[in-house]
C-alpha cells in the first residue's frame, strides 16, 4: 500500500494537525515568487563565488556526509552545501525569524524556549546520490516524548522525486529510528531494513516542515533540474546546536543584530544555566541578550590583569522568547 503524505496547505491549523499526525507538513506558497527569487539568487551567487575562491563545500557523490572543500576544478558538483547563512546575507536572518515559523516552533516544542541550531543551503544536481534514511535525533542514544529539533526546508526551486526531493516515512516520529549499519553486500553504510518511502512534489516557495524524529533523507537526483533549498533547524534551548552562532558570527553581523535576532541565534540564557556567554576581552560585543557579565580574567595579587565591570551588569531573565512567538 502506498504511503500517503499530507497535502500542501496554507492553513496553519491544518499544518499543526499534520505535524501531530504524521510528523510532516507542507506550507504551500510560504514565500512569494519575488521573495523566493531573491533568496535563490543570493544562494546561487554565494555558492558560485565560494567555488571560484576555493572554499566550496561539495560532494562528488552527492551526499552531505562526504563533503570536501573544493574550488574551480569542480564547478558543478552533484552536491554543494552553503553553510553559516546568517553570515551571508540579511535575507537569511529575515527568514529564520519569520513569525509563522516561530509560531510553529512554539507549538511543536510545547512552549519550551528554542533557538536556531543550523541554517544552510543545499544545491543538488543530476547524479547526486540519495541519503541513508535517518532521523536528525539519531545522535541521541534515547527516545524523546517530544521533538527537540524541528526542520523547516524552503524550496527555492521545484522539488520532485526525480530531482532529489526529500524522502519520508510518515508517522515514524513516535517510534525508534531506522537501523543503520554496514551493508554486507556493498560494504557501504546503509539502512539495514527495507521500507517504503514517499517523496513530495513541491513548488518553489513552498516549505517542508518536519519533526526531527521522522525518518527521512535527501532523494537521489536523475533530473536536469537543480534542486535548491534553505534548511533552517530549530532546537530546544538546552540542546547543543550544530552551529554555535555566538562564536562563529562575524563581528559586523553581531553588531547588526536586533534583540530578537540575538535570541534566535543563541545569545539568550534560559533558566539560569543554558547558554551563558562571558566576554573574551573588555571590548567584546558578544554577550547574552538577557544577562550581562563583566570581563573577569585570572586575577592575582600584584598582577597586571584587572576585571572590567560593565555599567549594565545583570543576572536576570527577560521575556524575549515569549515575545518572539507572541
How would you describe the overall organization of this protein?
The model has no long low-confidence stretch (mean pLDDT 91). With 326 residues, the protein is of the alpha+beta class. Helix 1 (12-22) runs parallel beside helix 4 (99-108). It folds into 2 domains: 12-243, Sandwich (Jelly Rolls); 258-326, no CATH class. It has 8 helices and 14 strands. The chain is globular and about 70 Å long.
Q: How many alpha or pi helices?
A: 8
Order of helical and strand elements? HEHEEEHHEEEEEEEEHHHEEH
Spatial extent as radius of gyration: 21 Å
- Report low-confidence residues grouped into runs of 5 or more: none
Architecture (CATH level 2) name of the largest domain? Sandwich
CATH superfamily of the largest domain: q2cbj1_9rhob like domain
Task: Write down the CATH topology of the largest domain.
Answer: Jelly Rolls
Portion in beta strands: 15-25%
Mean pLDDT: 91
Question: What layout of secondary structure does this protein have?
Answer:
Blueprint: H1 12-22, E1 24-27, H2 33-52, E2 56-59, E3 68-70, E4 79-82, H3 90-96, H4 99-108, E5 114-124, E6 149-155, E7 167-169, E8 180-182, E9 189-191, E10 207-211, E11 215-217, E12 227-236, H5 245-248, H6 251-256, H7 259-264, E13 291-292, E14 314-315, H8 320-325
Antiparallel strand pairs: 1-10, 2-3, 2-4, 4-5, 5-12, 6-10, 6-12, 7-11, 8-9, 13-14
